[in-house]
Write a structure and sequence with these properties.
mainly alpha
Length: 145
């Protein structure tokens, strides 16, 4: 849980234009492989509630997370954005502020996708589609029904 809090803090600092280096120092001993497996399970649970369209960008981020050349700061931003989106707490709660509560999560994901956009390759998009098809069925089947 502490890694989650640090990653979400790094995300908030980065969006706010603040220095994230002190926070990044706290992540030097993280087992990113184990953390990414935990995140994937949470995305799967979220997907059942949110649907294919909302899950796709999270899976894109997840697969960038698992790439070997992804930096620690990118990993922290990715985990922060994914977990901020799927965990039940939020800086702007949906219950109190319906539209704004959804927008802050979406903006966090968009911010991180823009940061790692060059790493979202056709191979990653293929993995995303494969995962979405396994969870929701083939996309063309959805369009024809």
């Amino acid at each position: 849980m502490i890694i989650t809090i640090i990653c979400i803090t790094i995300l908030a600092y980065a969006i706010g234009g603040k220095d994230i280096n002190k926070q990044l120092d706290k992540l030097k001993d993280v087992d990113w492989k184990a953390k990414s497996s935990e995140v994937f399970e949470k995305i799967g649970d979220y997907a059942k509630k949110a649907g294919r369209l909302a899950t796709k960008p999270l899976l894109q981020l997840y697969y960038v997370l698992t790439m070997g050349e992804t930096t620690t700061s990118e990993k922290a931003l990715i985990i922060g954005a994914i977990l901020y989106t799927i965990l039940p707490f939020s800086l702007i709660p949906v219950r109190a502020h319906k539209i704004l509560g959804m927008l802050d999560e979406g903006l966090a994901v968009i911010y991180v996708i823009k940061k790692v956009q060059d790493k979202i390759t056709p191979e990653i998009d293929a993995k995303v589609e494969e995962t979405l098809n396994a969870w929701f069925g083939p996309q063309d089947a959805i369009q024809t029904t």
